[in-house]
Structure formats: structure tokens, C-alpha cells
């Protein structure tokens, strides 16, 4: 089909895919001028996942001639086009960036929710600096690891340092900050994060978190050392408890990125099929929704 349409117009077509089963097909401007072709496009986007993880999209396109608009359809068929997530991420960041106005992004969520992984992707695509609050704390405490800080100085010392780090970052713009899972508990931390920042919650099902943590081990996460059992069981038990304690705090975030919802939208059966880039795209979408709402409220004087 792609070849067929291109052949009729003698120019290549551009196909842009949206994420919510929508998209558009754009024809080269010169092609439109030269051929005086009015293109009527009806697109159908069932998302399919192939075994090599490259998504392809079926697209049905109908074209009719401009000079004889009522004329019959030139061609109908189906295109399988690669789903370029890096390009989609870039496009989304270009769309969101002007609304961001330099505001920093603070990622919150339970241990293993991907704050560091997704944060690095976001900082790179937005051209922001990336900070990991745990790493900054470790640097402040003479390079001691988080686990060692907990062991030697206790959790309250760690929390004090965490607040100091967030206070220091709060005066800066254009940062993507991966916070520690417990940063949401203290109100003062929210004041710092929201001073020049937007808080985004990565909401990941507990089983997926426990799987991720079990894959790398629990040694670097001292709060997971209280339970018995294998790493998966230990992580699942403790994370369930922590979510009960902190659920309300995470829900205060300006934007929520639910992996279950993204997987549903993309037609995946399991959240573990999602790539960090797909999660980063959704984070930008949710940030955009939040900023547009804020903008609307400011214009309405609310
Ligand atoms: N979308 C993802 N799918 C699978 N594994 C992931 C994903 N995001 C992160 N991980 C893995 O999970 C672990 C924890 O991720 P990380 O970004 O360090 O989380 P956090 O900073 O929230 O603790 C790492 O081993 C990372 O490679
Ligand atoms: O949930 C928590 O209270 C903690 C999460 C950890 O960070 P990650 O969420 O980056 O693992 C780290 O700050 C510390 O072990 C405490």
C-alpha cells in the first residue's frame, strides 16, 4: 500500500503515529501542489506487538482525486510501519518543553519504580541535568553507601540529609531528580520539590517492583532487610507495607504515571513488556496534562 500511494503521488508519504490509537498521514507539500490531490484518509490503528518487540501498526488509507472529489477511492490497503519510540519521545518532549518553562521534574515512587532509569531518559531528551538524591546524600556522607548510612547513622539521619539535599536542589531549575522512595513522607520535602518543580509519581504494581528488585538483589536497599525469605518475597512483603504507609503521599503528586494504564493503552498483557522509553513518553504526557490544567486555571483566575 505504501508503495502504491507513493507511486500514484510520485512522492513518499509521511506517517505519524499517535499513542492513543490515533495518527495522521501527511503527504509531501510539493506532491499536493503538483498533483492537486485531495487526500481523504481513514486510518485504523490496531496496535500489534511482534516477537522482536518492534511494534507495527496496520493503517488503512483511502485517497481520492481533488479534481474529481466524488471519484472513487484511489487505493485502500494496509501499511506496516515501525513504531519509533525514540522519535515519539523527542516529539513529545518538544511539545511539552515550552509549557515546562524550565520547571524541574521530581520523580517519586517506591523503590525500584524506575525513577533513576526513566529520569535519565527524561533529562537527556529535555536537555535537563539529572540528579539522584540518594547519590547526592552518599557524596555528602563521605561516599558512604545508603545501606552503610542506615546501618551506622540510622534512618532519621538519612532523612535529615535527604531533606537537606532536596532543599539545595529546590532553588534550581531544569533538573530531573530521582528521589528516594521515602522522600514523599515529610511535608517539608514537598515544599522543596514543588518550589520550582513538578512531582511525578511512577506507579508500578508491587509484583513488578519485587521482580525488578529480586533481579538485582536487596543489598543496596536497607529497608528491605527486615523480612525473611528469598529476595522476591522479602521485597514484595516490605513494599506492600510501605505502599500502605505511603500511598496517600504518592497520590499527592502533580502527575501520576500508571504502568498498568500504559500497558492497557498499548495493548500489552504485562507491565514488564513496557520499555523505559514508553514510560518516559507517558510521563511527559501526564506532565503536559497537568501543565495545561494549571495554565487553564491561571487564565480562568482560579
Ligand atoms: N521499565 C522497566 N522495565 C524493566 N526493568 C526496569 C524498568 N525500569 C527500571 N528497571 C530496572 O529496575 C531496577 C530499579 O530501577 P531504578 O531506575 O533504579 O529504580 P528507582 O530509582 O526508582 O529505585 C533497575 O535494575 C532497572 O534496570
Ligand atoms: O523507600 C525508601 O524509604 C528508600 C528508598 C531508597 O531509594 P530508591 O527508591 O531509589 O531505591 C533509598 O532512599 C533508601 O534506601 C530509602
Automatic annotation (TrEMBL):
Q: Where does the record place it?
A: Plastid, Chloroplast
**Catalytic class of the enzyme:** transferase
What family, per the record?
A: Belongs to the shikimate kinase family.
Which cellular component terms (GO) are annotated to the entry? chloroplast; cytosol
EC number(s) for this protein? 2.7.1.71
Instruction: List the InterPro entries.
Output: P-loop_NTPase, Shikimate/glucono_kinase, Shikimate_kinase/TSH1, Shikimate_kinase_CS
What pathway is this protein a component of? Metabolic intermediate biosynthesis; chorismate biosynthesis; chorismate from D-erythrose 4-phosphate and phosphoenolpyruvate: step 5/7
Report the Gene3D superfamilies cross-referenced here.
P-loop containing nucleotide triphosphate hydrolases
Q: Which domain of life is it from?
A: Eukaryota
Identify this protein by name. shikimate kinase
Gene Ontology biological-process entries: amino acid biosynthetic process; aromatic amino acid family biosynthetic process; chorismate biosynthetic process
Quote any Pfam family the record assigns: SKI
> Which UniProt key words apply to this protein?
Amino-acid biosynthesis, Aromatic amino acid biosynthesis, ATP-binding, Kinase, Nucleotide-binding, Transferase
- Any one GO molecular-function label of the UniProt entry: shikimate kinase activity
Give a short account of what the protein does: Catalyzes the specific phosphorylation of the 3-hydroxyl group of shikimic acid using ATP as a cosubstrate.
Write down the chemical reaction(s) this protein catalyses. shikimate + ATP = 3-phosphoshikimate + ADP + H(+)
